[in-house]
Amino acid sequence: MTQQKTTTRKSSASRPATFSKQTLRVIPVGGLEEIGRNMTIFEHGNDIVVVDLGLMFPEEEMMGIDYIIPNMEYLEKNKKRIRGVIITHGHFDHIGAIPHVIHRIGNPPIYATELTKAMILKRQEDFKGQGSLNVRTIRKIDRIVLGSFKVEFFHVNHTIPDSIGVVLRTSIGTIVHTGDFKFDHSPVGDAPADISKIARLGSEDILALLSDSTNAQEEGYSISESVIRDNLDQIFLNTRKRLVVATFSSLISRIQQIAELAEKHGRKLAIDGYSMKSNVEIARELGYINARRSTFIDIRQVNDYADSKLVILCPGAQGEGNSTLMKIVNGEHRYTQIHKGDTVIFSSSVIPGNERSVQGLKDTLYMKGAEVIHYKMMGIHASGHGNQEDLKMMINLVRPKYLIPVHGTYYMRKLHGKLGESVGILEKNVFTGVNGQVIEFDYRGNGKLLTEKVPSSYVMVDGLGVGDVGNVVLRDRQMLAKDGMFTIIAIIDRKTKKVVGEPQVTSRGFIYVKENFDLVNAAKKRLKDIVMKSTSKGSNGTEPNWNYIKNSIRDDLGKFLFQKTKRRPIVLPVIIEV
Amino acid sequence: MTQQKTTTRKSSASRPATFSKQTLRVIPVGGLEEIGRNMTIFEHGNDIVVVDLGLMFPEEEMMGIDYIIPNMEYLEKNKKRIRGVIITHGHFDHIGAIPHVIHRIGNPPIYATELTKAMILKRQEDFKGQGSLNVRTIRKIDRIVLGSFKVEFFHVNHTIPDSIGVVLRTSIGTIVHTGDFKFDHSPVGDAPADISKIARLGSEDILALLSDSTNAQEEGYSISESVIRDNLDQIFLNTRKRLVVATFSSLISRIQQIAELAEKHGRKLAIDGYSMKSNVEIARELGYINARRSTFIDIRQVNDYADSKLVILCPGAQGEGNSTLMKIVNGEHRYTQIHKGDTVIFSSSVIPGNERSVQGLKDTLYMKGAEVIHYKMMGIHASGHGNQEDLKMMINLVRPKYLIPVHGTYYMRKLHGKLGESVGILEKNVFTGVNGQVIEFDYRGNGKLLTEKVPSSYVMVDGLGVGDVGNVVLRDRQMLAKDGMFTIIAIIDRKTKKVVGEPQVTSRGFIYVKENFDLVNAAKKRLKDIVMKSTSKGSNGTEPNWNYIKNSIRDDLGKFLFQKTKRRPIVLPVIIEV
After folding, report:
1. Does A349 touch chain B (CB under 8 A)?
2. Which residues have a Cβ under 8 Å from the Cβ of B364 and sit 6 or more positions away?
3. A44/A4: higher pLDDT
């Protein structure tokens, strides 16, 4: 390594209005401390290119939150400089933030391959009021110019076709971003990853590689989709009765396989579930699913065919309460239910946190006389992310000076970094910073992980609100969830300062008020006592301090109710003077 | 098989007051559709013997619930007939319901081995007001008579010493209940399971075997604790800095190993966490932990020793928010925090549902410069339950006519049943019923799974309340958790029926009222409009129907708030006439 003297640029939050072409900055705003909400900013001179705008599904304690998106503060401030947004593939963790943020950053052009574009536009339909998008189709052989960036693409394998990696060339150096990827030498309904093109990059002195860390903990190579297809083929071959296949609606590659196998084995395919159906529609329209029209039947026709001639494909392999599979299992589906002898295939992994509901679903299926085939029993699911050997192969092909593990938690990225070191990347050239932390390359191509951070905190989407649910609302929801609430309302006579009539109690999620008269009456009495004491004490003509009195009531009743029930509802005293 | 004509007894909910000795009934009330809340009733003639009184931890959607216990209705109704409760070992899923229910079933004598007894009495200290227990110590060689049951015990291995299986002899036949078990030929600080005694049972024509199904999905044999000890020994040998070991406080066998290894490697052991400390105290007092007094130091002395001379042992390997480990990691512990170079050992499996928090904890530890050793990386945890080969071995040793898989979900027990069939149990002699379903043996020893069921629904414990939280309160908590609540209060003039002043709004977990004046004002206006319309319409002298008006307000505001926010808070209109 010929490491030269590094000229450090002073980076501060208030950057000057003109930007030096002498630095290239890489800022992963999301996806470094989580799986999801992927977004990386590339800055060269006055130009910004963004790769991916994804969302992440909330953790358990983020109650009522729909999803979490990357923080847009930095891009909003610099929106005039954005030359384009490149989307690597059509999954929600890469496209999901678009409808919520694209207009706040000036609606820049979005570059995406054909299928990815269709997925983006499909999702936008759910956000009609948000204005239209400016999506431009790219082919994998295209070269586009975005300001001072020259951009190329290369084909990679994933669980959805038309996935790409991105090459960003600047005067300072070339950066490669893999997107989500695995190497599959025999994919189903897709070409193998373009290893030749990636290998050619390796002869070019690539400055840095941003690479997918999702499976950095998994040993060996990823499994080929054709292995999965062969295993599914065996199941089709050996099953005499009905087949019900549950998977993610985003696993287009798996859906392809099911359609083709249904056709091969002379079964009709009924698809249900809103997003599953619309994804299949898109994929069929664009030619990514190559089964005859006559193979597909409407879910309403499901009873017109013998069990031995049917496959039902639907979402719900995570045991989600509202999914199509759950409705079928619980007898709440409009057209069908589980038949004795059905074979139910769970063709997806279990997302951490869902194990218990999946177990419950399997139990119910067994009780109803169905057979369950699960990915732990045989190879009927492959991840879309490269395992350790895939990751090493990518590094060896690209031969970058710097490795920047992305898409993963800190631990996964740290492991990915160690893999990089094991194939020759210098330890000091592996950057495993945190979300928002700036990586800067100087004109000599010397990289540095700065202490500078752009805003990268969670932005929560809840209904129509983006970022309006903060920690206070979340904490309230957590408390409400645990022990409910107890509202007590007292009317006070403006003149006498006495409680008029009986205080009213409204409670939810705490106890049955109707079965706990004694407790409720005792609470009312305590309120009256506190009001009486507080108002008679200070009855020197001054107005009572109602805020102080309300706090006393809240404290007193909180303690009283805890002592009587060992529960801590949110106590809300309301005082109204009339 | 010499199957004879079966004389079926008519079983109804209203059983006669005298009971025939001609039948032996086995009723697993809990533990058949879940992991936890284990309890089985054995009935012969007028006598009832209960094995285990356990609890189960709630599922995610059971918000605010502390735990779930078995339904006691049947035992309460028949409490005069209970001759004794036998507890197989000291874990909460076998002893946890005792303080909540024992006095409701007439405080019958509890039979338990020494350590189990100590754990039961320790837990009872947390329920001081509930009266004292009548716990009798049994040794594994004892034979006791409980009514018409003659009862013996045999030693099994588990993750806590002093675990037993139970043999219940009656005039109809002998039933064996394994409790939680595995076979460990080289346990640590414990004797191997008493295979000889179990084998002798096999020569006796055992009627039925109730056996632990928890690990029926796991292939091969369970791992011996001495393998774990050797692996931990290696880690101790290779670690120069501080060791932090996190495990369950109930894994007494693991705690033993840590104490002995600390002593062997010349390290002091600091233990923290309430239940961890009290369990260690009990185990040391009874001689189950054989380390010198000088090995143990108080957590407050933790800074008096060099990092290389220290082990900290605490709970928190599940990433629980309030655990000691979490406090240490987040810098909230009073005496210590994570040091760069610490090795943190997670010596327990991850309970389904906790994967995400454990991942987060590992990330934080790596960011703070600690090394993490996890049970998936090397054998530092063994389950306390027998794998498939252990289960087959148990069946082959006991050679029962009937197999009743217990302790597991339906799916696990079904698999267990298939294992039984693979070693010679007839398919029709495997009973995999559901919770509460009665198994009856007639005087010829012919068993039958009846359709009769005793009450077995979930009983939820929340604070001091047992069974008082029902589905309504739970549903309210789920709604409150998702979108919070919105209380709107209107004072009505009793004479004019007009709203006095402005309605008041109190909201939690929905939006910041202070930042949403427009929405709140619009809601108030809608309320006033509704009241005005409703009261002027019916102003023919009759009293307005306030309940009807409140429902209108609830519906109208619910729709209005959803339209504006796409959130559905619980809307609580309160109308007060003055």
Report:
1. no
2. A410, B329, B330
3. A44
How would DSSP label each residue in B248-301? Answer: -TT-HHHHHHHHHHHHHTT-EEEE-SHHHHHHHHHHHHTT-----GGGEE-GGG
Where does the pLDDT of residue A541 fall: very low under 50, low under 70, confident under 90, or very high at 90 and above? low
A-to-B residue pairs, Cβ atoms closer than 8 angstroms: 179
Q: If you average pLDDT over residues B273-302, what whole number do you get?
A: 92
Chain B residues 274-313 within an 8 A CB cutoff of chain A: none
| pLDDT mean over B544-563 | 94
Q: Tell me whether B463 touches chain A (CB under 8 Å).
A: yes
In this predicted structure, what is the pLDDT of residue A576? 92
Report yes or no: B70 and B56 within 8 Å, Cβ to Cβ. Answer: no
Give residue A243's pLDDT: 97
How many angstroms separate the CA atoms of B489 and A506, rounded? Answer: 11
* pTM, 2 dp: 0.86
Residue of A458, A508, A568 to mutate, interface with B, max B Cβ within 10 Å: A508
| B362, B487, B509 ranked by CB distance to A411: nearest | B362
Residue-wise pLDDT for B150-183, tens only, equals 999 999 999 999 999 999 999 999 999 999 999 9
| Contact between chains at A487 and B566 (C-beta distance less than 8 A) | no
> Is pLDDT at B539 greater than 70 in this prediction?
no
With vertex at residue A540, the alpha carbon angle to CA A536 and CA A541, rounded to the nearest 5 degrees, is: 105
A359 touches chain B (CB under 8 A): yes
pLDDT single digits (tens) A301-330: 999 999 999 999 999 998 888 899 999 999
Smallest Cα distance from A295 to chain B, Å: 34
Sheet holding A310-314, edge to edge: A296-297, A268-271, A310-314, A243-246, A343-346, A371-374
Alpha-carbon gap, residue A528 to A531, rounded angstroms: 5
**Residue among A128, A346, A363 with most chain B CBs within 10 A, to mutate:** A363
Residue B120's pLDDT band (cuts 50, 70, 90): very high
Distance of alpha carbon B358 from alpha carbon B123, whole angstroms? 27
Whether A493 and chain B come into contact, CB under 8 Å, resolves to no
- Check residue A21 and give its pLDDT: 73
Query: What's the CA angle centered on B91, arms B89 and B93, to 5 degrees?
Result: 110
Residue B505 sits at the chain A interface (C-beta within 8 Å)? no
A356, A472, A509 member nearest B477 (Cβ): A509
Query: Which of A463, A470, A501 has its CB closest to that of B565?
Result: A463
Question: In whole angstroms, what is the distance from residue A7 CA to residue A24 CA?
Answer: 13
Could you give the dihedral angle defined by the CA atoms of residues B298, B299, B305 and B311, in that order, rounded to the nearest 10 degrees?
Answer: 100
Closest-CA distance, A294 to chain B, in angstroms, reads: 37
Share of chain B above pLDDT 70, in %: 96
State how far residue A459 is from chain B, nearest Cα, in angstroms.
Answer: 15
Task: Report CB contact under 8 Å: B465, A366.
Answer: no
| Percentage of the residues of chain B whose pLDDT score is greater than 90 | 79
Nearest to A411 among B363, B476, B515 (CB): B363
DSSP H or E segment with residue B40 = strand B39-44
Give how far the C-alpha of residue A244 lies from the chain's centroid of Cα atoms, to the nearest Å.
Answer: 26
Phi and psi angles of residue A493, each rounded to the nearest 5 degrees, phi first? -70, 125
Average pLDDT score, chain A: 91
DSSP for A244-308 reads EEE--TT-HHHHHHHHHHHHHTT-EEEE-SHHHHHHHHHHHHTTS----GGGEE-GGGGGGS-GG
The two structure tokens encoding residue B54: 């356990």
Give pLDDT tens digits for A358-394. 888 999 999 999 999 987 777 888 899 999 999 999 9
Q: Cα distance from A213 to chain B (closest Cα, Å)?
A: 14
